[in-house]
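Support request from a user on the community tier.

User writes: "When I paste my structure tokens into the form, the page sometimes reloads and wipes my input. The last time it worked, I copied everything first. Here is what I submitted, just in case something in the input itself triggers the reload:"
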């Protein structure tokens, strides 16, 4: 039997009230009783109908991962400080104040509520991994994660507690890891498409604190999104600005009038490489920003940070913003030239003594005669307005997007520092190579709601709707109630989930709630028509027609 849901039994109670159909999507989700924000900002409760939507979304995700060879597990959310310290991430997250740290029976912070599960997945696998014969490992779970967001906003899009459907893989070699990454991307794309999400894109992205290796975001375009990507209108190349590469043609007609585009500035950073801290200077065009990710990738550095003003003065002996390439070249441990300055001519630079110097050229004059941009590298953030580095013909445009899924190459980022080992085919001890992915379940729920809402309310795709049919009784009395209950029984026997509005409210209120809630099908039961004939409305199309019971079952065929 399918679900039989009476509106009178729902919590919170569905009371006659004005629903603001122009509210934000998460506001509309609250108004129709699917979610509730509790007293802690960024923390939400799912209500009964919201739970049904969540269950359908998670079932779709799980099916997609099981089809790609993953086994479902449930890893602990409470994780020890020791394993986070062994990976080196405890202090990183603590410094960013992003970690919910837990004080145990003593006074020390001995554990945390996991924002991700890389560490705990390693610990879980470690006790049973001995040989290459035990690999590969493919694990999937869907559990709550915790991140102490400074400013949680956007409802379920950026919450402090959120459900993540994440997967972790362990392989004996790089070929196996890349196959795992392919499977993770395929499973993510399959899951998001099956939900009915329109226009899911894959974007080369920045792995952030999880991984410095390549990663892929699965996104949908949305002005509500907190992610950003650039796209070339000529060749459709798209990527995160921290990953994308721009081109810098000579002459650059697009930036010819931009004075900053004719300036070579120097930025200084502190990098850690092989346990040693280095001072790195980057020469870059004046209108661009340096990508920390790209600098770390070029240098093989484990971390990078901008020098403080005091560190800057101590290192270079000049004030910030007065550093020129000549001083930087003689003082820095490493000197990088971005591709944006490789072909600059007659540009502007700076001298700590005389100020701005115009008409400068590499290898010329008393200031730059010993400085040339040898082996330029790509370390710029590729923002909108720059030429596309792939085709060289289009100019990047910027778009906002909601990040729904993310796939990461991890390599031995966690297995090596945490001491996870296996015996390979040659009898040597080796660290397995890992990959992982995550799909935000709550983000998917709210993104689906936003993608399909209209001027009358929500409109859920059938595959994720909390129920398939909303039964509206358009008359009072025992006969109308008998017909409605009989219909609901017939639908339930045929595997169709049904919501019956049995409240003692006006017909107009019942219709308003039905349209705002947005189940795929509305069926009106009335005593004005003969028994077994109903008015059916397709919520998405807005089309209504009178149908017999058998016709209705044909329309709903295959919907459960």
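"...and here is what came back when it finally went through:"
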């Amino acid at each position: 039997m399918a679900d039989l849901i009476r509106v009178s039994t729902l919590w919170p109670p569905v009371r006659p009230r004005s629903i603001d159909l122009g509210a934000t999507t998460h506001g509309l989700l609250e108004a129709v009783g699917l979610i509730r924000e509790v007293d802690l900002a960024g923390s939400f409760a799912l209500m009964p109908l919201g739970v049904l939507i969540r269950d359908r979304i998670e079932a779709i995700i799980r099916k997609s991962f099981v089809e790609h060879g993953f086994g479902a597990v449930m890893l602990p959310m409470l994780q020890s400080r020791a394993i986070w310290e062994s990976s080196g991430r405890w202090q990183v997250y603590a410094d960013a104040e992003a970690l919910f740290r837990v004080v145990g029976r003593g006074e020390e912070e001995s554990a945390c509520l996991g924002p991700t599960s890389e560490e705990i997945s390693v610990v879980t696998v470690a006790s049973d991994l001995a040989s290459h014969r035990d690999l590969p490992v493919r694990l999937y779970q869907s559990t709550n994660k915790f991140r102490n967001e400074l400013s949680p906003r956007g409802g379920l899009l950026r919450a402090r507690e959120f459900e993540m459907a994440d997967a972790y893989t362990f392989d004996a070699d790089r070929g196996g890891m890349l196959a795992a990454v392919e499977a993770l991307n395929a499973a993510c794309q399959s899951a998001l498409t099956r939900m009915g999400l329109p226009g899911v894109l894959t974007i080369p992205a920045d792995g952030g604190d999880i991984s410095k290796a390549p990663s892929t975001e699965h996104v949908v375009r949305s002005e509500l999104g907190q992610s950003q990507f650039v796209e070339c209108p000529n060749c459709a190349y798209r990527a995160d600005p921290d990953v994308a590469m721009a081109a810098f043609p000579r002459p650059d007609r697009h930036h010819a009038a931009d004075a900053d585009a004719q300036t070579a500035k120097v930025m200084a950073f502190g990098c850690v490489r092989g346990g040693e801290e280095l001072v790195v200077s980057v020469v870059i065009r004046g209108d661009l920003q340096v990508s920390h990710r790209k600098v770390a990738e070029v240098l093989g550095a484990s971390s990078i940070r901008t020098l403080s003003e005091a560190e800057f003065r101590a290192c270079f002996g000049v004030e910030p913003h007065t550093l020129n390439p000549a001083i930087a070249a003689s003082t820095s441990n490493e000197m990088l030239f971005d591709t944006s300055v490789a072909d600059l001519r007659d540009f502007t630079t700076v001298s700590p003594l005389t100020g701005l110097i115009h008409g400068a050229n590499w290898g010329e004059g008393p200031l730059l005669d010993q400085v040339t941009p040898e082996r330029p590298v790509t370390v710029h953030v590729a923002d909108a307005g720059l030429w596309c580095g792939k085709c060289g013909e289009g100019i990047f445009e910027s778009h906002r997007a909601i990040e729904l899924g993310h796939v990461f190459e991890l390599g031995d980022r966690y297995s090596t520092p945490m001491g996870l080992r296996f015996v390979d085919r040659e009898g040597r001890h080796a660290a397995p190579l890992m990959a992982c992915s995550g799909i935000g379940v709550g983000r998917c729920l709210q993104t689906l709601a936003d993608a399909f809402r209209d001027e009358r309310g929500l409109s859920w795709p059938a595959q994720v709707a909390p129920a398939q049919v909303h039964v509206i009784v358009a008359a009072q009395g025992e006969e109308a109630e008998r017909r409605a209950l009989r219909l609901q029984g017939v639908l339930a026997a045929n595997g169709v989930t049904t919501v019956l509005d049995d409240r003692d409210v006006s017909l107009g209120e019942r219709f308003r709630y039905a349209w705002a809630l947005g189940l795929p099908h509305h069926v009106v039961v009335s005593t004005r028509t003969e028994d077994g004939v109903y008015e059916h409305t397709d919520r998405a199309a807005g089309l209504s027609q009178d149908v017999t019971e058998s016709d209705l079952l044909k329309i709903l065929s295959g919907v459960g």
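Agent notes: The reload is a front-end session timeout and is unrelated to the input. The chain has three domains: 27-77+114-228+398-448, 255-368, 467-557. Residues 27-77+114-228+398-448 form a domain with the BirA Bifunctional Protein; domain 2 fold (CATH 3.30.930.10). Escalated to web team.
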